[in-house]
Design a protein that fits this description.
The chain is of the alpha+beta class and 157 residues long. It is 52% helix and 15% strand. The chain contains six helices and three strands; from the N terminus they run H-H-E-E-H-E-H-H-H. It has helices at 2-15, 17-40, 89-103, 122-129, 132-140, 142-152; strands spanning 63-69, 72-79, 107-114. The chain has a three-stranded mixed β-sheet. The termini are far apart.
């Protein structure tokens, strides 16, 4: 039986069937990444009148999507604050969390990180923005919730 599976696998590799399957999977992940990027690119900066896309805080390259199972995905976002001592990096991470949780139409697990080397306290902030209890507690604060709403709400909403 092992011999048969080995031969079938070789046939798939030689004929390119394996590559076709991987290409389809890869294209699907790229499409999902663009879908995620379209959601986050319009988030407004908490201090400036610009979007995160306009400030290069998020780019298409900062989104990675991996398939976890049947129609379930791992989304990894690495954003870059505008300055290494940005005091609003945690708030930006919170905005990313909130908007993606609200807007993505598919089942997902979300990990958000500051791009390595772009912030002086990136490790601490990464822990905060990926801690579900801290995120929930932050959203219970009415002042913080109002700021997040202003950042994630589309101008036409």
């Amino acid at each position: 039986m092992e011999l048969v599976f080995g031969l079938l696998n070789r046939v798939r590799i030689v004929t390119g069937l394996s590559d076709l399957t991987n290409d389809k999977r890869s294209n699907k992940m790229e499409e999902k990444a663009l879908e995620v990027y379209d959601v986050i690119r319009t988030i407004r900066d908490p201090e400036k009148p610009n979007t995160l896309e306009e400030l290069d805080v998020v780019t298409e390259k900062c989104v990675c999507v991996q398939e976890l199972g049947d129609e379930e995905y791992l989304i990894i976002i690495k954003f870059s604050p505008t300055v290494p001592h940005c005091s609003l990096a945690t708030l930006i991470g919170l905005c990313l969390q909130v908007k993606l949780q609200r807007c993505l139409p598919f089942k997902h697990k979300l990990e958000i990180y500051i791009t390595e080397g772009t912030h002086s306290t990136e490790e601490d902030i990464n822990k905060q923005i990926n801690d579900k209890e801290r995120v929930a507690a932050a959203m219970e604060n009415p002042n913080l919730r109002e700021i997040v709403e202003q950042c994630v709400t589309e101008p036409d909403d």
